[in-house]
Amino acid sequence: MKAIRVHDFGSPDVMRIEEVPDPQPGPRQVVVAIRAAGVNPVDTYIRSGTYRKKPTLPYTPGFDAAGVVELAGAEARFKPGDRVYINGTATGAYAEKALCNEENVFALPEQLDFAQGAGVWVPYATAWYALFEAAKARPAETVLVHGASGGVGTASVQIARSLGLRVIGTAGSEKGREMVREQGAHVVLSHHASNFTDQVMTATEGRGPDIILEMLANLNLAKDLSMIAPHGRIVVIGNRGTIEINPRDAMGKDASIIGMMLLNKTPEEIARIAAAVSAGLENRTLRPVVGKQFPLDQAPRAHQEVLSPGAYGKIVLVP
Q: Which of these, 315, 273, 287, lies nearest to 109 by C-alpha position?
């Protein structure tokens, strides 16, 4: 089978498509024929070697994907032909096939296609954990979602709306802002606006958001601290560098800055997140939005796109 392989950490060009042996399942494993694999910013951080957790080289990137069970171990609860999405693999998702432990495999709801299925795990699990485990969000609170037109952003808007929060979403393009409106944000702003902070404060009647989901902390964290409401929580989901902040801005409001990495979560936390996400998919309050699709051999281009300004939905690779 064909798979993307990384032999050295570095630029997107270190990803190359190669022929590798087909995986074989153990008793409680399945082999999934991948129809679409999700591309996430975290994939690029790992590939570059800048992420705290590094895989053993060589490796195949990717965590989330969707496809059809091709082979099933004797004790697996899935059978060949089942449509599934996955939240992790033993062999990597950027490939024609992936070996998965059965606890990482979930039935793909009939209303979702494979590209949407590839956009489930990392975006929705990240958004759920950020809102309800990290920030302890409560109904009627206001959340500001930076980059609300991206994969994690759209997931955050949908989840927050479905559970009673007031949502302010930002996007860099008019196309992105229109999509954020369609996902249900109460207020949609351009984060490029020169008076952005003033607009946020006006939208919150001068109080500021109770929660800020931050996708680019190296650019926005100081500004977030100037806007956050008293006792507010800023959850750092994404970051690409350093920034200088004044801790007194947090002290004066009893505000919290909370960092999170999905890869740090325990099996018990993953099980809770998966149950919540599966429920949202089943009742159709969660609806993955797919932006761009690339062939598997264009993984380097997909890694460039996922970090480019003007995010719009989920980027997927199609083997």
A: 287
Show the CA angle centred on residue 275, arms to residues 142 and 288, nearest 5°: 65
Alpha carbon of 158 to those of 148, 186, 208, 290: distances in Å?
10, 11, 21, 14
- Cβ within 8 Å of residue 101, ≥6 positions away: 28, 29, 88, 90
Q: Quick one: which H or E segment has residue 217?
A: helix 217-227
At the topology level, CATH places domain 2-120+288-318 in Quinone Oxidoreductase; Chain A, domain 1 (3.90.180)
How far is Cα 248 from Cα 40, in angstroms, rounded to an integer?
A: 34
pTM: 0.91
Pairwise CA distance, residues 133 & 130, whole Å: 6
What type of residue is 311? A
Q: Look-up: residue for tokens 């809770």?
A: 272
Same fold, 2-120+288-318 and 122-262: no
Mean pLDDT of 2-14: 98
Domain definitions of the chain by residue range: 2-120+288-318, 122-262
Which tokens hold the place of 80? 């060949």
Is residue 120 classed as helix, strand or coil in its secondary structure? coil
Q: What is the rounded end-to-end Cα distance, in angstroms, of the chain?
A: 10
Short-list 206, 253, 247, CA closest to 233: 253
CB burial class (10 A; 0-12, 13-18, 19+) of residue 32? Answer: buried
The pLDDT tens digits for 86-128 are: 999 999 999 999 999 999 999 999 999 999 999 999 999 999 9
71 in Cβ contact with 100 (< 8 Å): no
The SS3 of residue 60 is coil
pLDDT tens digits, residue range 249-301? 999 999 999 999 998 999 899 999 999 999 999 999 999 999 999 999 999 99
CATH assignment of 122-262, among 3.40.1010.10, 2.60.120.260, 1.10.760.10, 3.40.50.720: 3.40.50.720
pLDDT at residue 187 is higher than 80? yes
